[in-house]
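Exercise: predict the fold of this chain.
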Amino acid sequence: MNLTSRRKTYQRLGAVVIACSLLSIFMRTVEACGPFSLNAIFTYSKHPDMPLDAFVKGNIGVLQPSYARSYLFAAYRQVSGLKFDQEEQSALLELWKDRLDDSGGPSDDEAVKPWSDARATIPGIPAPPQIGIYRNREKPNDYESYLNCQGDAFATAANTLNERKQRYGADSAEIRDWVQAQDAVFSNCSAGQNIPSPAALTAPSWLKSDRAYQIAAGNFYAARFAEAKDQFAAIAADGTSTWSQTAAYMVARTSLRQAGLGKEDERQAALTEAEAKLQGILRDNRLSAQHHAAYRLLSLVRLRLRPEEKLHELSQSILKRNAGETLKQDLWDYTILLDKFLGDSEEGAKPNNLSVAILADDVTDWIVTFENGKPVALDHAMERFTKTSSLPWLIAALAKVEAKDPRAASLIDAAAHVDRRSPAFASATYHRVRLLMDSGKEAAAREILDQFLGGDRKQIPPSALNLFLGERMLLARTLSDFLRDAPRPPAGVSYDEDGRELPADADETGRPKDETTLFDQDAITLMNEGIPLVTLVAAASSTALPPHLRRDVTQAAWLRAALLDRREEANRLTPLLAGLYPQLRELLDVYGKESATESRKSVAIFIALRFPGLRPIVTAGVGRSIPLDEVDSYRDNWWCLAGSNGPNSNPDEPGEPASKRPRRQLPIFLSTAEHTAAATEMTRLNVLGSGPNYLSRMAIEWANREPADPRVPEALHLAVTATRRGCTDKETGRWSKAAFDLLHRKYPRSPWTAKTKYWFKD
């Protein structure tokens, strides 16, 4: 497992701990340290658009099967007609905020602060010990620890100290003794078995009572569970102790901790014991102060002890109206359990692992089916929609069906009858248009799109808007139509730190600060592979594109023309490119004056070497952020294979939803002949290979052909640089060494030779 995958796993497990109290294993790992590139997100695939307020109010956009299961539940309930009230909306937003939080859990200082502040008010005590809240398991593992002492433990200790201090005096010997015993308790949070000594026989009764609880707590944090359980039980039986009710709860909590951290063969017995103790607390009205905590702990025990039964119970609970008080915890537990049965939603569901009883719950059945990409999922969705006529099952079937399927016609008709006010409307319309397009009914699809996009676009979630614009781009009747819909505003921007799609450099709404439109992958796939050079030249000359995108198209079209030795197209673009990039003007003038093919090619190679930002392809997303003539430190220089998008490429990933994958259709304004020409050009570019290899090879040929050309030493030097700072493959080292050897052999006194001290294998 690589570091990124491992980190995702540990963060998920860490999130379980925070939600479900002290009892689960908390996995921690060192943060990955980059560098991370800034990516544009046009359609969120793992969660809805940020901020999530619109989603939770019913504006769910085009639902994606790849969403995390908590979002799929929220969509199911809303599409079913069960809206969330204000309290439920707040609970959901709080849950998602906790899950998206990248802090990995509370820090030591944050958790300990209440105790540290209270302790600092007591004079005459030793310096405080260093307290860590995470403890390694009994068999240490570099990546495995658990949250041993939560914040409520330190808050309780601080409140107790403040109360005792007010009653007995901050400078009393008993208070100092109390603090030192509590220090011993908390020293076990991170390591050791430091148990406080019993109170002196002459100590006051309150101190003896507190000390008994401190000793039990010390054993609990020291993972001495048998001792802790016996001691908490004794305190619970002591009606005179102020800690008797809390201790009764702690007996059950110790059993549950023992189940999580103890021996495997003792786990079932410990869980059964915890369940019995918690049920006893809930039956005892004298322990009413512990009922809320006991109920939550019992839910966790049953989740572990009888997971199928608990999943069914939770599936019913999260569908109840006015469930704001319990919705966050119940949904958290529900999705954790579902993950246990299905596996990670990112890795694909394993529905065969589920029993018939679990799939009897419609919400669970729908989530499992909706995220399943296998053909059997479509059959099941169709069966359920035919039987129920419910909107969730219509959306599930629509998302999976292809136009060639004979069942598509009935689904298209059903989609046409979805109420515009329904949360399902955008999803139904998107797939209705998709199916009509794929059926060859472009005019009908375009009419629906124009109606949908003709309203207030601010009411359409950005991800959904970009999906609809992608559909209309394919229905472009002219190049101008295509250029109007190809650029889109990102729904967000993110550093690809861990694949979670969290916005970066965004304002308080979660949208990018810079609303500049960019090209998504589907648009540049068409520009690079579907549109011939003559059309790309026309696009570069069009004012339909915003200036920053026009620059990218122009440089790509010019370099493509130069590499293919399409002199006429290159010369048409030269004035435009020189105007956009004045630093290129001098060399472009030289290129335009060359009449001989080989000489012209040499100038083109020299320009490409001098300007590592040039590439014969249009770039998706944020693209290269540094000047054209500077070498990027992270190897975003020159180009890889022409059919790719270089270091910033974002190819289809297995399991990516169909609505997110770049469509391979052509815009209707392109003829078959034009597409054939584009394919031929791309084949020729790919034959050239990646930029560093090709440029090195051409520089060597140039040096052998015209050794006296004063530009050759610099070209060879830049060729070697390209093999270090650009895309590489198994052939790169050979060309790097060849250029290096030729430079040092033929031009030993050149300053460019002095600057070229090494060649590069990788």
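Check your answer against the key: The radius of gyration is 33 Å.
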